[in-house]
Every structure is written in C-alpha cells, then in structure tokens.
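Bit of a strange request maybe. I'm writing a small parser for structure token strings and I need a real example to test against, not something I typed by hand. Could someone generate the tokens for this chain?
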Amino acid sequence: MPIPLDDAYRLLVRLGRCPVAHIGSGMEGHVFDVGSDSVAKVWFSKTPDEIVPLQSFYEIVHGLHLPFDTPLITEVHDSPDGTVSIERALQGTPLNDVVFRDANVPPPFATNALMSVLTALRDHPVQDTRCALPILGVRPPEAPTLNGSTSALLDVVSRNVDRYGDQLRRSVPDFDWVYAQTVQQVREFSDAKLHAVHGDLCPPNILLGPDLNVTAVLDWGFLSHFGDTSLDASIACGSYNLYGEHSRVNDAYLVAECVDRHGYDHHRLLVYRALYAVLSSNADSENGTDGHYAWCVDNLNRDDIQAALSDAL
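Reply from user aminoacidic:
Good idea to test on real output. This should exercise your parser:
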C-alpha cells in the first residue's frame, strides 16, 4: 500500500531527516532531498531485510570503479510506518530533461551517453557475486554463475507466463512458439564473464553534467542482476523512446550503433528483446491495459524479432 506523501514527510521528520524537497515518487516509494548531499527513500512495501541486499549490490557496483557515479546506501531505518534508506545524492541532470526524443535520430550527445554507460558496464566484469537481487520478486541463487544467472532469469520469465500467459496468447498469435524459441535460444547463449546488468537504462536514469558527459546512473533494482551485458544493451535501445512518434526508428538506430560501432551481436539483441518483453509485460499493471504492455506485445509481434527467433544459432 503506497504511503501518502504527507505521512512520508512526517516520518522523515521523526527520524531527524527534515526534507528539503520532494524529488519524486515511483512504483516503490517517495524520494526526498534531505540535505548534506543525501537523499531519503521512503519505501512503500520493502522491509529492511529486503533493502540490505540492494545495499550490498550497490557496494559491488561502486567497487567496479566505473567512470560515472552509482548509488550507495549509507543508512537503513526500520519504522512501523515504513522503511527508510538514506543514500548519497547523485549529481547531474537526467538525460530525459535535455533531449527531444521525438527527433528522427537521437542526438549525438544522447547516443554517446547511452553507449558510454553500456561500454563501461561491459568493460568492467564483476568478480564479487556474493549478493544477488530478487528479479520482480523472485530471489535468484545467492552466488550466481553464468549458467545460474540465465536459469534464474528464465525462472522469472516462466512465472510471468504462468500468471499472464493466457492474456499474452490473446495479444500475440504465435505466443507459445515465441516463448519456446526465446527460452531455447537464451539457454544457448554463452559469455565468458558476468557483468552488472542495470535492466532499466532509460533516459531518466542517466545523469549528465554541464559538458553532457555521464556523471551518474541511478535507479538500479527493477531488473538489476549479474549476467549478460547484451540484455542491458537491448533494453536500453528499446527504452530510449518507448512511446514517442519515432520510437521504432530511434530503437533501430541505437541497435545499429550497438552492432556496427560497439561489437554487439544483432541476433542476440533481438532475442533478448523478446525475453524482456515476456519478462516485463505486466510489470506496470495486472490487466495489460497500460502502455508498457502494448509496447511488449508490439515487440513480440515484430517481424524482425520473430525472424531472429526462427534462426538457428
């Protein structure tokens, strides 16, 4: 049950963290500027025991020494009125605020920002995998391996299909074939190393400095895990402009950038897009009446994605 904004404000005051400003509210809670270069998150439903793994995950990512800042949780407070975490404030302006995403082609600075994040994550493999986050509420193995990470991800996909499969079958004529081919091909992918996968590299989560270079990446946790960086690339290309007039053109442009200039495999990016669509179809609503569900269905019905699923590896 979401905590009313006024109640969240009063909770922080009782904890001695008087909010300077309300930054925003999302699916998981309210975020406030509480001064001293810190932000406070008042979580709607997470317990302190659920925040601690996120705190450890942040520490592992921070320890990769990426060329941009990432969150760190400095305090976790348990209260009958809700769980509160205190984090270091991340500096910068969201890419979402400085780019006009209805352009035919993403501007060079936006493309460079997105690619620089993806490149950094790919170039910094994870050695410490002692902490794994739940994915959409499903807890993976404590110390994932390459095969274990894929299995954990596919387990979440299977649960989503168990719950929403009938709805997806009404929206995607060949859904059972799409799903079976996606699972089969993802199981056959291989990679040499595990990477930190953000899982939601959309423009609001990428912060830029005055020079338009990336200063920070925030909002890890929705689909964050240790796995294949190509999944991040596929999601990022599609999420750059989910609902705009030129969303498909922007998507294709960024996929081409990943393939032609940064060495990603085109086939793998398309298969991972199908995986993400099945995985997250109902993340925003149970009944599939929201824009994200429609976007997922559109991807699953796309000729190029279905052609990729038809191709043998």
